[in-house]
Amino acid sequence: RSKAQGRSTFNLFNPSFTEQGMRQLQIETALRGAIDKDEFEVYYQPQAKAQNGVVIAAEALLRWHNDEIGKIGPAEFIPIAEEIGIISQIGEWVLKQVCQQIKAWQNKGHPPITVAVNIAPEQITNAEFPKLVQDLLEEYDISGNQLEIEITEGSFIDSPDKVKTNLYALKQIGARIAIDDFGTGYSNLSYLRKLPIDHLKIDQSFIRGMFSEDGNRQLIKTILSMSDNLGMQSIAEGVESQPQADFLHEGGCSIIQGYLLARPEPADDFEKHFLPTKEE
Ligand code: C2E
Ligand code: MG
Ligand code: MG
Ligand code: MG
Question: Is the complex ipTM higher than 0.95?
Answer without folding.
Answer: yes
